[in-house]
Write a structure and sequence with these properties.
The complex is a heterodimer. By secondary structure, chain A is of the alpha/beta class. Chain A contains eleven helices and ten strands. Chain B has twelve helices and no strands. Classes of the chains: A alpha/beta, B mainly alpha. The interface between A and B is medium-sized, with 29 and 21 residues. Chain B: One of its GO terms (molecular function) is phosphate transmembrane transporter activity.
Amino acid sequence: MCALTITARKSTKANAPLASDTENTEKNIVMNTRALNLWYGENHALKNINLPMLENDVTAIIGPSGCGKSTYIKTLNRMVELVPNVRISGEILYRDRNIFDKTYLVEELRTRVGMVFQKPNPFPKSIFDNVAYGPKIHGIRDKKILKEIVEKSLRGAAIWEEVKDRLNENAYGLSGGQQQRLCIARCLAIEPDVILMDEPTSALDPKSTLKVEELIQELKEKYSIIIVTHNMQQAARISDKTAFFLNGEVIEYDNTDLIFSTPNDKRTEDYITGRFG
Amino acid sequence: MSKTVGVKDLIQKKDKLSKMKSGVEKSIPVFLFCLASISVLTTVGIVSTLVYETFLFFKDVSLIEFFTTTELKPLSPVEPKFSILPLLTGTVMTSLVAMLVAIPIGLTTAVFLSEYASPAVRKVLKPLIEVLAGIPTIVYGFFAFTFVTPLLREFIPALGATNALSPGIVMGIMIIPLVASLSEDAMNSVPNAMREGAMALGATKLEVTLRVVIPAAISGIIASFVLGISRAIGETMIVTIASGSSKNFTFDITQSMQTMTAYIVEVTSGDAASGTTAYYSLYAVAFTLFVFTLLMNMFARYISRKYREAY
């Protein structure tokens, strides 16, 4: 596995060297975006994105509305291709393999790179069936094993205690925060490698948000997490690295503490101090 | 008056109308209720007529004869026999054939339209399919009799000139747009977020369709089946033309059978004099038909409620 190197860094638009390069040489790059461009029809939505993301890190993507951060995270598991008239150039290497490669099945990618959405989107099925859905479509039929997976995933998403007595009830009976943790459990059930989170707490109340944030801290032990967030405090609280997007470009990408304490770019500073966005 | 418009004054002026207004407001619900009662009263009227005349019929013919014997000879001068069973099998068999055609084709059409077709294709295809629904049933009946039956006889030599198979198939074709259109509506209203949730777990399009979209839309889909079955049971013209009028108690779809609806057509356009048992048998048959579809609908409601996935 290639360690984070200066080359990966050089190609980003931000011109400051990554101060933390030396600290991070131990960590592998899990997803490496290189010269990524994306167009919605004529609209150039992502412009020459270069972002190496590290294993077992929480990488936050921040930026004002319409900056392309949601588009970017959806590109990482190729969900963006569901939008008509999307064109993509460049490459994204997941564990050194280009996800746009013709031989790379999109289903295979999404099994490794899971996703949690902005609005909780459980299936209108029982809590159990929601979590068991992923393992089932990937061929796990054994009831006993499914039961174990469901319990493990629900525990992993810190919701087991709340739902263990009502596994057969419809997931839509849960509160919004519980639904979101259920969706995280659903994602964990197929043991992905990377978890993408697209503003996972924006539809939740502060208490549920806190729970999900704590959960993210636990999850990073085992998973690499990439999270889009509108909430800069949230990025500061939970992430190791932060990328600041503006108008489809990466303005700055660095360790979170550096981004929030001594940003290199004036625009980053303006954004995090709340001067716009 | 000053140049600025006094909105307050205008509002007060309008208040003067309020007495009249409240009168109108009060009479509107009464008016609406009257119009709404028309359909309710009609239903009550029809059902009570049916029940009354059916009652008269069962003065002459026992329930046991009606439901357990198998011979139907309403106009026989010597010894008329009244059994509903030949008509029931006729109705059930033709409807069964129709649904065997309409459900798989209608549902796959709906899946294609809702999940696979591009918006452009869908925009062309959906109205085209719905054109099928606009064809008068007499045309379908004619089509069954003069085209489908001869065609089928090439493959099944034993097929009668009138039979249950051919009108069954044609009724099925007639019902496809209904099943397809309603099922498609049901699938289309499943939120995209659910499809995305499944796709993000690595589900293929087929897995998303079969294990998320269809289960989530199942109550609408079942409703479309039931409407289809009700259409098939109530369909008259196609079976009258292409299924013949043999009152056979049989399950052999290559033979001529008469459905309940076709029987009513035959007897009303025939020689049954008012007041005869044959005449009253119409009501008994119609009442059976009514109960049949009613049970069908209740059963479907139960099924769709049981499997409903609320979101």
